[in-house]
User: Fold this.
Amino acid sequence: MTRPIQATISLSAIRDNYAAAKRAAPKSRVLAIVKANGYGHGVERVQSAVPGADGFGLVEHNLFVRCNGENELISNKSSSNTWRYNTILDSPGTQLTIRHGNDCLVYGNYLKGTDGIRIFGDRHQVFSNYLENNTIGINIGNGDGEVADGAPLTSHDRPDDVVIAFNTLVTNITHYVMSGRTNGLGATNITFANNILLGWGAAASIRGPYPGAVWSGNILWNTQRAGDMPSTGYTKENPLLVADENGVYHLQPGSPAIDSAVGDFPAVTFDQDGQPRTSPLDKGADEVSAEPVSSRILTPDDFYRFLQTP
Assistant:
């Protein structure tokens, strides 16, 4: 005779246990491990109970070409992950999305022909990325909840204390965006600094609450208008960008971006080419350097060569 067995999984209990561990060790990070598909109950559901848990993941040197379907082509759902030196090409409607979690690093990525980088959550560092010919370069999320204050785990967590700096944005329809949302909470204390915005549409379009913003040291050139970026946050001058053999724009000698960055950004240690940044820093994703290049935009030919390597 088979006895019926029922297992009840309490997501609120998992969340409370995680919170208790964080309170017991407030200066430590917590790695949450979900085994065996949540013991058969679904890793996605169980993981959603601890979206702020540290993942310590490293995702690098991947190539995505002509992808479609889900807009969140890459969807980060935990904290303390690093997304670097990935390339996304010719994939309209797709995004590299920081959907859940805090304290992630997003740097050295190349996005061309996409919907750009989209950000929710707190204290992310987004720097040294190269974004060209996208509908949106960088999208700072308009939150509909604050998870730290008990909002549902499915919320679009309001971005707080995010740094978006030292990126190069070229001919995107709009370079920097916050989309509108009914009763949206917007984003707070966002730093947008030392970026280069070149060509095409509006520099910035902010359609939600945006208190505590810091705009500083940005360069605009040949954009249609500054949009919602205040005049104190940028200069209009030619950054002297020239495309290399891969079609990627780099700084040339005499550029006003060289050695002119403002502010202190200790997390910004590498540029788009994987070269170390040394003070005084250059604005934009490229640091003029004699150090070896360790990363670059990837192409399908790189993949084919990899397959043919013994």
Observations:
- The mean pLDDT is 92.
- Residues 56-308 form one domain.
- The helical segments are 11-24, 36-39, 43-47, 300-308.
